[in-house]
Write a structure and sequence with these properties.
Layout (H helix, E strand, L loop, with lengths): L1 E2 L3 H15 L6 E5 L8 E2 L1 E3 L5 H5 L1 H5 L3 H6 L1 H4 L15 E4 L19 E8 L3 H21 L6 E7 L5 E8 L2 H19 L10 E9 L6
Antiparallel strand pairs: 1-3, 2-4, 2-9, 5-7, 6-8, 6-9, 7-8
Helix pairs in contact: 6-7
Length: 218
């Protein structure tokens, strides 16, 4: 979501409460650590469900929540001349076999000190993207676990604007902790990275450093 005014921020806790009522226990709400001058202000919202229909029918279910409709009226009924956002983008993901459910990070730092890292790995073809996912399932996830990267999810994007790609989210106590983790990752990952069956399976890598908002559950 690209924020256009402060209405998004003031309404997010209302939306989160409504999602809780619908059975979404953990709602992650994040913002980029840095926004370059002139860059859109982004908000990342993460929810997960075991039943795909819960997500497909989300709008209809929210429309039946009178408390949400009342509390979020300013956002829902915002006029065309002052919209709360520029654009919305929805990305659907399917969890990897190596981590079939999302998880809460086990961190001790206060929420405002934490760093989250969202990565997207694009591939030249669908087959090469599947190869990279196999790489995760066959050992890369194990390395992340061994080093306590506190992954929230690993997902194959099944609907999005940069397919074929995968995305994953890791969590750290702070920036120093994040840097140490990635420094330790390299030597363990190198032998797998050099295997001939896993070559050229990432054509573009994008990373975004995030911080959790005060009302994020994750």
């Amino acid at each position: 979501m690209t924020e256009n005014n402060n209405l998004v921020t003031s309404t997010q806790s209302i939306i989160k409460e409504a999602l809780h009522k619908l059975g979404f226990k953990e709602v992650g709400v994040f913002k980029p650590l840095e926004n370059a001058a002139g860059q859109d202000r982004l908000v990342y919202v993460f929810i997960s469900a075991a039943d795909f229909s819960l997500l497909v029918n989300l709008d209809q279910r929210l429309a039946k929540d009178q408390k949400y409709l009342e509390a979020g009226k300013a956002y829902i009924e915002a006029g065309y001349s002052n919209p709360p956002f520029k654009r919305l983008e929805t990305i659907w993901m399917k969890a990897f076999e190596g981590m079939p459910k999302s998880a809460l990070p086990k961190l001790s730092a206060e929420k405002n000190k934490r760093i989250y890292e969202l990565r997207s790995y694009e591939a030249a073809t669908e087959q090469l993207s599947a190869n990279k996912i196999a790489m995760f399932n066959n050992g890369e996830i194990d390395i992340f676990k061994k080093l306590n990267f506190n992954a929230v999810f690993y997902g194959q994007v099944i609907a999005g604007s940069t397919m074929p790609n995968l995305m994953y989210l890791t969590a750290f106590e702070n920036m120093e902790d994040r840097n140490i983790h990635w420094k330790d990752f390299g030597p363990l990952y190198k032998p797998m990275q050099d295997l001939p069956q896993y070559q050229n399976n990432v054509s573009k890598s994008i990373k975004v450093l995030l911080y959790p908002t005060a009302y994020s559950d994750i």
